[in-house]
Design goal:
three-stranded mixed beta sheet, alpha/beta, TIM Barrel, 16% strand, 296 residues, binds iron/sulfur cluster, 12 helices
Amino acid sequence: MRRKEVIYEHTEAKSTLHRVNAWFLPFRWGINPYRGCEHDCVYCNARYTHEYLGLPTGDFAHKILVKDNAAAVLDRELSNKRWDRKWTVNMSTVTDPYQPVERELEIARDILEVFLKRRNALMVSTKSDLVLRDLDLLAEIARGGFLNVVVTIPSMDEELREKMEPRAPSIQKRIAVVRKIHDAGITVGVASVPLFPYISDSENDLERLIKTLAGSGADYVVVDVLNLRGEARSRVLPFIEGQYPELLPKYEGLYKADYCEKGHAAQVRERANRLIKEYHVDNYDRMFSYRKKTSA
Ligand code: SF4
């Protein structure tokens, strides 16, 4: 099927920082250089954010809003007397900051320059190897002791990746990102999220994944099982029906509500956390001591 053309709409943001109220996350603020995300992951539950812009959720992967002035606005916000530079900001929360168009526009890079200038605590979350373009800046920010990079790698299965994250960079490219960020002396974590029940959450799947991440220099790995919040349900269940029809009844059983049935989810977390310890990718203290130093 031919892919819909991607439309970029250039906008001027009035503000860039937004508060994140989730006690379990190691940051309290977020910044998004773009709205919408070309990576088009089937399980994405950020699509609802397009509704806030008066756009249909179906446009999330095809209509990308570009915040041309994000770095200038951020600089102003971080200079506010009431702002504390120890407050951690995550770039990004409802998009990937390294959209394909970032290669030309360099908005995320300009934002990094501001974090460096203001010596503000920062977390960068991405699936894209384009982040390596900015390794020079990231290494400089890390030398100030306030950077944590998180790469999302939910599975080692490239065929599955092509189906569930059709426009995101390959698994091998992301593994290379982990290695290079680690080699640059920067704390690097991996979010192995989401794990798909009966597709990518077996003992073998998890061992292959966690062993590879450990061998690639990850400091820590966090996992979570697929949830079907928001629009994810209306996309993931048809995806399962089309790609793994034999699993549909099991998924319908596991997902009577938005979250995976508790017993299955607990079993997967226990399995993953055991392997995470076994392969010594449980250096969460790097993230948590960072949080203690920097959280709001
Ligand atoms: S990279 Fe993140 S924001 Fe982008 S489509 Fe995938 S899950 Fe959604």
